[in-house]
Write a structure and sequence with these properties.
Alpha-lytic protease prodomain-like; single chain; mainly alpha; 8 helices
Length: about 300
């Protein structure tokens, strides 16, 4: 348990450092964007501001998710906090992308002269600081949907800063001012692409849909291989978060058995579900000659 607590502290400390870095980037890019007249730079600053918000949300969710306060009215504690954070973060990215598309269209209609030097130096600063932030969160992004949402914010922002840098160079040496709104549209499109999958994943978990990688027919096939089991029906499979898979269902037995026998078979079911499907929380209702529907899915009334 101490190792888990230490990992949580490390993740929290890394998030705090990335928050500080992104506040610095946001302020400098916003001022620079206003001075230079670059919508691409301002859009990058707004993206960085959304990073700050997402990182703060992720930091709070990281703290809540590891609290041990499971109470009578919070029987799962705060384990879903990180999923809520991922949903909020992906939604803010989509809203931001729509706003950037609007700004780019306005700039196409009303072009404006841009100071390339300011754009170039601030883009370089953003690439360096966001690159450091990405490295800080890369490891944690593999283990948590919440940390992955924060990581995607930062990684996408690093790439948009590269695009802004290219635009700044073209503006300075070629005077191609139309590049600025084009880059803004590309940044917006990339944000939509990156955030849509994360939004779908977090929504699936919140709506308690079965994980994509689990087929109920496969679960039935493996469970009925266990001696003594006739069928499994009225099945519900869902995720509490991106690490915790749950199953509840009715299991019909071939004969009337003792409670001690059921315990042994139940243990076999739990082992099969964990090994084959990563389902780590199981609730089984035993049945024998019960007159009820035997389909996998039975509508609740």
């Amino acid at each position: 348990m101490s190792h888990h607590h230490h990992h949580n502290e490390v993740s929290g400390n890394r998030l705090k450092l990335t928050i500080i870095l992104n506040v610095g980037i946001t302020v400098s890019q916003l001022i620079g964007g206003i001075i230079s007249g670059s919508t691409a730079l301002i859009s990058d600053a707004l993206h960085n501001f959304s990073d700050v918000i997402s990182l703060v949300i992720s930091y709070i969710a990281n703290l809540l998710a590891h609290r041990k306060e499971q109470t009578l009215d919070k029987t799962f504690g705060y384990k879903r906090a990180e999923i809520v954070a991922a949903l909020i973060n992906s939604t803010t990215l989509i809203v931001l992308a729509i706003f950037l598309i609007y700004e780019a269209i306005i700039r196409f209609i009303h072009p404006k002269e841009i100071h390339g030097n300011t754009v170039i130096w601030l883009a370089l600063l953003s690439i360096a600081l966001n690159g450091l932030s990405v490295l800080l969160l890369k490891k944690d992004a593999k283990n948590s949907i919440n940390m992955r949402s924060a990581y995607l914010h930062l990684f996408s922002d690093m790439l948009t800063s590269v695009a802004v840098l290219i635009g700044g160079l073209l503006i300075k040496y070629k005077h191609w001012y139309f590049v600025d709104p084009i880059l803004t549209l590309l940044i917006a499109g990339y944000l939509l692409y990156m955030s849509w999958g994360l939004l779908q994943e977090s929504l699936r978990i919140i709506m308690q849909f079965a994980p994509k990688e689990i087929e109920i027919a496969d679960v039935e096939k493996e469970v009925t291989k266990i001696e003594g089991i006739k069928n499994i029906h009225h099945v519900h499979i869902w995720q509490l978060n991106d690490k915790s898979y749950h199953l509840e269902g009715h299991v019909e037995f071939n004969k009337d058995i003792k409670l001690s026998e059921f315990d042994k078979i139940c243990e076999k079911i739990e082992n099969v579900l964990l090994e084959k499907f990563k389902i780590n929380h199981t609730n089984i209702q035993p049945e024998w000659h019960r007159d009820d529907p035997k389909e996998y899915i039975i509508p609740d009334h």
